[in-house]
Write a structure and sequence with these properties.
By secondary structure, the chain is an alpha/beta fold. The protein has one domain: Rossmann fold, CATH 3.40.50.300. Helices cover 38% and strands 12% of the residues. It contains six helices and four strands; from the N terminus they run βααβαβααβα. It has a four-stranded parallel sheet with strand order 2-1-3-4, covered by helices on one side. Helix 1 packs across helix 6. The chain is globular, with a radius of gyration of 16 Å.
Amino acid sequence: MVANEKTRLVVLRGNSASGKSSVAAGFRDRFGRSLALVGQDNLRRIVLRERDRAGAANIVVLEGILYACHDGAVLAQLRADHLGPNCGYYLDVPFAETLARHATKPIVNDVGEEALRDWYRERDVLPGCAETVIEADSSLSETVDRIMRDTGLAGLPALKN
């Protein structure tokens, strides 16, 4: 078993440029320093110095593409092992919007449309209603508000730096 009955686990999934990192950062800004963020990009590319490879050590929690077909069983086991509340979210953004959002990122010249198209999975939700689908028309603020309410963190005092 992992953590305790009061520890909350929040998993944010979605395609590249769907807003996962922005939502995670907004969630942390709203709640404060006692919220740990583990981002797939940071863990995989910086900590593990790994490129995307089949069978590589790329199990990540909190936010990442985390494909349902590859990572669904791992996420289900993580939820089962976690003693506290579990909340999962899938940010559902159409490919055209993915391209528009990606165009605003610093890596726009490093990662092209072909890579984004290869990574993209339309509505790649986990089976069994394991996560809440958040549509592209939900603003960053609305999405963070929802997660704060769903996780019960909205009623707790924020711990600012």
